[in-house]
């Protein structure tokens, strides 16, 4: 019972934050609602027993990446979003039926008795840091090393792109 | 015990919000945040499946997705700064030419 309460609490927070991200006009408000989404997703990860992923979610996503976003928003002094120069009729014509289809599919998935409706082992504390490390440094070692190259390239790319052009 | 489908539906809702934000928002930073929201939604289904099948690979994949997202955020925001420097705008409707 407690699991359900926690799940729906965090789910409501996440969906509310995501909808607020769409509704807000100011980028800083959108960024703060995205932090709410990421924090509540960390709660969902804890419910699933993924404690390491939950910690990394808070530190890397809600911490580092969002700080970067907020920093850039303030650096560029981003103000209220302008209204779109032209509205799209096609988007409405395709979007509304697609949304209805998605809703029907979601309800169908939730009510129908299928293999996906078997319960998830909640709170089994499956996925401690030691088990993740065992996976990361044995079967996924090559991918892990390649990521370090990716990060290096990203650092150099960010420095080169954001650097001020020298005046000729 | 929460069924797997609850997590998947939550993930789908968040992903749909991300797609909607990507399409309707006009501020390039907000569009970027919508992409992060989509990545997060995918991460949730990765973790849910990992817990469901009791296979840790899903959580390792989440780790890699986060690494790529961090790299993408760093490079993307640098590009946004570079674009802002030459165009003086963050509205994607006004950034429609490769040439100044």
Low-confidence parts of chain B: none
Q: What are the secondary-structure elements of chain B, in order, as H or E?
A: HHH
CATH topology of chain B: Helix Hairpins
- Proper CATH architecture of chain B: Orthogonal Bundle
| Count of the separate structural domains of chain B | 1
Which series of helices and strands of chain A comes N to C?
HHHHHH
Q: How would you sum up the global shape of chain B?
A: elongated
Q: Whole-number average pLDDT of chain A?
A: 85
Can you lay out the helices and strands and say which pair or pack?
The complex is a heterodimer of chains A (168) and B (100).
Chain A: H1 2-23, H2 27-47, H3 51-76, H4 89-111, H5 129-137, H6 141-162
Helix pairs in contact in A: 1-2, 2-3
Chain B: H1 4-24, H2 28-53, H3 57-87
Tell me what the structure shows:
Chain A is mainly α and 168 residues long. Chain A has one domain (2-162): Four Helix Bundle (Hemerythrin (Met), subunit A). Helix content of chain A is 73%, strand content 0%. Chain A is built from 6 helices and no strands. The longest helix of chain A has 26 residues, at 51-76. Chain A is extended, with a radius of gyration of 21 Å. The termini of chain A are far apart. The mean pLDDT of chain B is 89. Chain B has helices at residues 4-24, 28-53, 57-87. In chain B, helix 1 (4-24) packs antiparallel against helix 2 and helix 2 packs antiparallel against helix 3 (57-87). At the A-B interface, helix 1, helix 2, helix 3, helix 4 and helix 5 of A face helix 1, helix 2 and helix 3 of B.
């Amino acid at each position: 019972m407690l699991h359900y309460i926690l799940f729906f609490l965090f789910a409501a927070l996440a969906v509310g934050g995501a909808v607020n991200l769409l509704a807000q006009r100011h980028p800083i408000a959108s960024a703060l609602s995205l932090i709410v989404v990421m924090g509540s997703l960390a709660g969902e990860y804890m419910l699933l027993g993924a404690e390491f992923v939950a910690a990394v979610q808070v530190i890397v996503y809600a911490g580092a990446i969002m700080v970067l976003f907020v920093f850039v928003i303030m650096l560029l002094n981003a103000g209220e979003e302008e209204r779109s120069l032209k509205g799209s009729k096609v988007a409405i014509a395709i979007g509304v039926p697609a949304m209805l289809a998605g809703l029907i599919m979601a309800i169908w998935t939730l009510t129908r008795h299928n293999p996906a409706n078997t319960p998830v082992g909640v709170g089994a504390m499956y996925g401690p840091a030691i088990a993740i490390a065992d996976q990361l440094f044995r079967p996924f070692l090559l991918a892990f090393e390649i990521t370090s190259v990716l990060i290096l390239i990203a650092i150099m790319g960010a420095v080169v792109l954001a650097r001020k052009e020298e005046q000729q | 015990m929460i069924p797997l489908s609850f997590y998947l539906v939550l993930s789908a809702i968040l992903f749909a919000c991300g797609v909607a934000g990507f399409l309707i928002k006009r501020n390039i930073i907000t569009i970027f945040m919508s992409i992060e929201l989509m990545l997060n939604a995918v991460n949730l289904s990765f973790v849910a499946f990992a817990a469901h099948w009791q296979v840790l690979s899903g959580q390792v994949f989440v780790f890699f997705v986060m690494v790529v997202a961090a790299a993408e955020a760093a490079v993307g925001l640098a590009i946004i700064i570079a674009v802002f420097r030459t165009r003086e705008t963050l509205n994607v409707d006004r950034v429609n030419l490769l040439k100044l």
